[in-house]
Write a structure and sequence with these properties.
Layout lengths: L2 H21 L4 H11 L4 H25 L5 H22 L4 H19 L19 E5 L4 E5 L4 H18 L4 H11 L4 H25 L5 H24 L2 H23 L10
Antiparallel strand pairs: 1-2
Helix pairs in contact: 1-2, 1-3, 1-9, 2-3, 2-10, 3-8, 3-9, 4-6, 4-8, 5-10, 6-7, 6-8, 7-8
């Protein structure tokens, strides 16, 4: 691998980590399509590298989210039960799947994520639900100066969604945050910053299972992983700190446009159509 490609991998990984940490998406949702569409990396190797990168990004980003009290550990560990199971099943399928299927599924997931970014989200709840499982939390939002209390609802449907998020995580190496952040916020009524912090913690655990399956099948390439990990280590710290000060809603439009472009590009590639500037 030449030096230029190594630098490009690191820079892309740093940018993906910044965006991923700010929205709890793990970074893989940006990393895999850019690696495959613009840098010509084999999709299976890109997914395997992404799984490792998401673990690193989660460790780096979660430390900041934990100090900010954005992470709900009790909720994360509950949802993690079904997410980890789904990740193993998804990875076993994804490691042997036809690349066109991976492109198509990944593209549709990114289009869904782009659309979900445009749905209005609220950080404040008028009334808190009952909390028999003691899953509620509260955090201080530096961007608004408010104390934000919340109690997650619809726990059973949330567990079902987390299973599906795990399957997508295992198949695509994205960590599952692309599904879990909108699900926690829109379905379970968890404020967006708490959803981001909780998802950032979860995706690391989920991606360990994905990385293990890809490692066992020889789909981890050190020359891709090393520069990506270095970039993610630097970018993850920047993104987590920006989350404290920036209103997440202001970023939704930008991220939605990026995800929509990448998603449609992957769908077109699955159909055999290449856009200008992309590599086969």
């Amino acid at each position: 691998m030449d030096l230029l490609l190594t630098v490009e991998l690191g820079v892309v990984a740093a940018g993906a980590a910044i965006l991923g940490s700010m929205l709890g998406l793990g970074g893989g949702v940006f990393l895999v399509p850019i690696f495959t569409l613009f840098l010509g990396i084999d999709p299976k190797l890109a997914i395997g590298a992404s799984a490792v990168v998401v673990v690193v990004n989660s460790v780096v980003g979660s430390s900041v989210h934990l100090r900010s009290r954005f992470t709900n550990l009790r909720l994360a560990m509950l949802l993690q039960v079904t997410t980890a199971l789904g990740a193993i099943l998804g990875a076993l399928f994804g490691v042997g799947a036809d690349p066109s299927i991976v492109y198509l599924v990944f593209g549709l997931v990114l289009v869904y994520a782009a659309v979900s970014m445009g749905i209005p989200r609220s950080n404040k709840l008028v009334a808190l639900a009952a909390d028999p499982m003691r899953l509620g939390g509260i955090y201080h939002d530096p961007a608004t100066g408010d104390e934000v209390p919340y109690v997650p609802v619809r726990i059973a449907p949330g567990l079902g969604v987390s299973l599906g998020a795990g399957v997508l995580s295992g198949m695509l190496g994205v960590g599952g945050g692309v599904v879990m952040v909108p699900a926690m916020n829109l379905l379970m009524r968890v404020p967006v910053k708490a959803a981001v912090g909780t998802s950032a913690f979860m995706v690391g655990v989920t991606s360990v299972a994905t990385a293990f399956v890809f490692y066992a099948n020889g789909k981890l390439a050190p020359d891709i992983i090393v520069p990506a990990v270095v970039g993610v280590f630097l970018g993850g710290q920047v993104g987590s700190r920006l989350t404290r000060r920036i209103r997440a809603q202001r970023l939704s439009l930008l991220f939605g446009v990026i995800l929509l472009y990448l998603g449609l590009s992957l769908v077109l590639r699955a159909l055999g159509i290449e856009l200008p500037g992309q590599q086969k």
